[in-house]
Amino acid sequence: MSDADEMILAGSRPQHSNPIDALHSRTSFVFVVDSLIVIFFVYQIFGNLALVPGLFFLSVWAGYRSRAAWAYWFVPLIIAALTAIFCFILLINVIQMLSGSITSLVFSLIIGYAIFSSIRFIRIHFHPVYKMGYSGYSIYDEGHKLPANEMLAACPTCLAVLAVNPMLLSREDRCPHCDSPLVLGGTEEE
User: Fold this and answer.
1) What crossing angle do the helices spanning 102-123 and 19-46 adopt, rounded to 10°?
2) For the chain, what is the mean pLDDT?
3) 42-51 contact pairs (CB < 8 A, 24+)
4) Over the stretch 39-70, which tens digit does the pLDDT of each residue have?
């Protein structure tokens, strides 16, 4: 590898070399945010008893960050529980919005996006490539060499990892796993 391959431009953040590591990092962050929301609501209702779920979430997060096998399914279960609560809050806000509350409209959009995002982070735990990456298997460790014009990319719908030539992608190209378009609208040069 040459020095130019390792160069990081000033002011830019270094990126993970493995897309699974990047996805794991984002999922860990979402879990922390969701845990803090749950702890906040538990504290509002039960006071200092919020320490109990706080310690539980901290231990799950630490296990998940270190890729412990026991922590793998706790994260999507906890995110799913919070998503169910978000759905209930969304329903309440939609009812208020129908009575003319503009604030409920804005809050409904925010909660709707949180639900959509949470469901995507839950879904990745069912994908076999993510499971393999979490357990320590990496296609980079196997010595796979891609041609110079190809790169690894994830399908925007099912997150399947594909070797693609980005210069040749068009709106007609579809994922071989889920048959969804690989190029979403507005990203291809006209």
Assistant:
1) 130
2) 81
3) none
4) 988 899 999 999 999 999 999 999 999 999 99
- Residue showing tokens 């979403």: 184
At what angle are helices 19-46 and 74-98 packed, to 10 degrees?
60
Question: Residue 187 has what pLDDT?
Answer: 45
- Prediction pTM value: 0.63
CA distances from 151 to 52, 99, 136, 166 (A): 45, 51, 21, 7
Check residue 149 and report its DSSP letter: T
Residue 22 corresponds to which tokens in the numbers above?
A: 């990047």
> Which residue(s) pair with 162 in the sheet?
153
Closest CA to 60 of 19, 23, 27, 16: 27
- Residues 119 and 76: their CA atoms lie apart, in Å, by 9
b/e sequence 102-126, b meaning 16+ C-beta within 10 Å: eebeebbeebeebbeebeebbebbe
CB 178 within 8 A of CB 160: yes
**Going by C-beta distance under 8 Å and a sequence separation of 6 or more, which residues neighbour residue 26?**
121
